[in-house]
Amino acid sequence: MAFARAFVPFPPSSSSRPSILNLPISHVSIPFQSIRNLTVSASSSALNSSASMEIEAPKTHRWRPMCLYYTQGRCIKMDDATHLEKFNHNYSADLKVNATCLNRLRPQNLDYLLVLDLEGRVEILEFPVLMIDAKTMEFVDAFHRFVKPSLMSKQKIMEYIEGKYGSFGVDRVWHDTAIPFKDVLEEFEVWMTNHHLWKKDQGGSLHRAAFVTCGNWDLKTMIPKQCKISKIKMPLYFMEWINLKDIYLNFYKRTATGMMTMMRQLEIPAWGSHHLGIDDAKNIARVVQHMLADGVVLQITARRSTTTPDEVNFLFGNRIR
């Protein structure tokens, strides 16, 4: 069975670079024929409900990898028809919501959901956030940056990035665009301020919004670790979050150990490269949309102590451990 491959052109640079990048679509390999004809029909029943959901793109929709320069505001090929045909420059193309899905949508205590999926174990390498309207399930905006480690030697960084992103074929775009974590947070705060999600002079917590992660690791472990490495105080907006695994367990009354398990159980096709953060964040967002359509109410599942920041209080007695 043949599998599709994609190519990402590079912006001009003074350094010597190949003109194209070989980008495998997926560790979760997607047959080429499936990509050509792909529409999403995600349906599932909670044990106590027959609710079903469809997130369906038009029949002419063809899944394409995101341009990873575009996601960071650095694409210079927006007038190149060939490039636009090969690469997606529209997040919402993969996150469309059928109006009939709104019938079972329940009132939420939050206005916006910030789907976050960090990548990198030694240091954060990728910081993607997708903003979803909790009341309509619609995609609103995205923030995506590749992150440059601050303590590693140049040689170690090369080895680290090759090991992490080389198999996806996106190591070059990472080298072209990665910036230090401190700079990423500064840009992220501007982005949040523009969306009225956060104001530093109003205490620093999120306003009517919450991070959604697939597990506790992103905000319980990795963000504090990276803040220490980068020698910055952990921002207050990282003090609480929604662990989708715990919500899923309590809503559907069944365990899902990760994003791929959720998608398999909910019959949602996985798109993109598993462990490429921006693709994982989009897939998690699709799970969130499905659960909202099934009638879930999303609640904070974990909160860091304000007096003892290293202490995290888990708010669900029935949770994934």
UniProtKB/TrEMBL annotation:
It comes from the Eukaryota. Keywords: Exonuclease, Hydrolase, Nuclease. The keyword Nuclease applies. The keyword Nuclease applies. InterPro entries: 3-5_Exoribonuclease (IPR051274), ERI-1_3'hExo-like (IPR047201), Ribonucl_H (IPR013520), RNaseH-like_sf (IPR012337), RNaseH_sf (IPR036397). CDD domains: ERI-1_3'hExo_like (cd06133). Residues 112-297 form the Exonuclease domain. Pfam families: RNase_T. GO terms for molecular function: 3'-5'-RNA exonuclease activity; nucleic acid binding. This is Putative exonuclease domain-containing protein. It comes from Cocos nucifera.
